[in-house]
Design goal:
Blueprint lengths: L1 E3 H13 L7 E7 L4 E3 L2 H17 L6 E8 L3 E8 L6 H4 L21 H11 L3 E7 L3 E9 L2
Parallel strand pairs: 2-4
Antiparallel strand pairs: 1-3, 4-5, 5-7, 6-7
Helix pairs in contact: 2-4
The structure holds adenosine-5'-triphosphate (ATP) and magnesium ion.
């Protein structure tokens, strides 16, 4: 189903800004001359909402969450970056396992299912998911999809 990725992303940003913490600003930006993509909007929405919700939950007040989309020749790249608690190195290899939670989550609630779902939906859309994270610095998630 072709849809406008920019309009889609702006709507999600607006929705999640309402549940963000005090002075936690979600900054959305798109790069590219086109914005129509042919992806499953329901699967994609679930992925993006999960990743931004994690960014909100695992970072503090007075921080920025950067949400970027880019459409290049044959790829759609979506990134979500926070300046939150980060993910300990030793936990990183388990991150997509169902019910896994990193050891620095303290009393932050969660079931450990969100990323497992994102990983499965991403692969259903023939995409891939990657992340880079440093403890107490922040986390960057990237999901990349082939588009026609
Ligand atoms: P839920 O099922 O409600 O999403 P959850 O947030 O604990 O619960 P996931 O979204 O699957 O589960 O994330 C798994 C774990 O990865 C989290 O418990 C947390 O330890 C870590 N994590 C995920 N995103 C981030 C992030 N942006 N910053 C720091 N840690 C994160
Ligand atoms: Mg989560």
């Amino acid at each position: 189903t072709p849809f406008d990725l920019v309009k889609f992303s702006e709507e999600i940003t607006e929705e999640l800004q309402m549940v963000a913490k005090q002075n936690q600003n979600i900054i959305y930006q798109h790069t590219g001359t086109r914005s129509i993509v042919n992806l499953d909007p329901n699967l994609l929405k679930n992925c993006v909402i999960n990743l931004i919700s994690n960014a909100i939950k695992y970072s503090g007040e007075n921080t920025f969450i950067e949400f970027n989309t880019e459409i290049a020749d044959s790829n759609c790249v979506i990134t979500i970056k926070d300046n939150g608690i980060g993910i300990p190195d030793t936990d990183q290899k388990h991150l997509f396992e169902a019910f896994f939670r990193a050891h620095n989550t303290g009393n932050i609630p969660g079931t450990g299912l969100g990323l497992n779902i994102v990983a499965r939906y991403t692969s259903l859309m023939d995409g891939r998911i990657e992340f880079k994270s440093d403890i107490n610095q922040g986390t960057l998630f990237t999901i990349t999809f082939p588009i026609s």
